[in-house]
Design brief:
The protein is mostly helical. It has two domains: about 10-40; about 45-75, no CATH class. The protein has four helices and no strands.
């Protein structure tokens, strides 16, 4: 697995990160890895595919997805 090196981190920032790691009972490395993975998140195409799969599952079960545009507009006008 590739490595990432970050230089010249402010001491205050580093201390905050260490505190967060301690609160979450993780090493600093594990805390930073988690934060980076959350920040990166899944690619847009992955999200679209996940939504498509969920919609297909619901449609196969006979569920419908009605157009909610009219309801949203009514709600905004309140």
């Amino acid at each position: 697995m590739p490595d990432v090196l970050i230089r010249n981190i402010d001491k205050k920032t580093l201390n905050v990160l260490k505190e967060k790691a301690a609160v979450n009972k993780r090493s600093l490395q594990a805390e930073l890895k988690q934060a980076i993975e959350e920040y990166a998140g899944p690619a847009h195409t992955e999200v679209v595919e996940m939504v498509r799969e969920i919609q297909e599952k619901f449609l196969a079960d006979g569920k419908e997805f009605p157009d909610s545009t009219v309801e949203i507009r009514k709600d905004r006008e309140r």
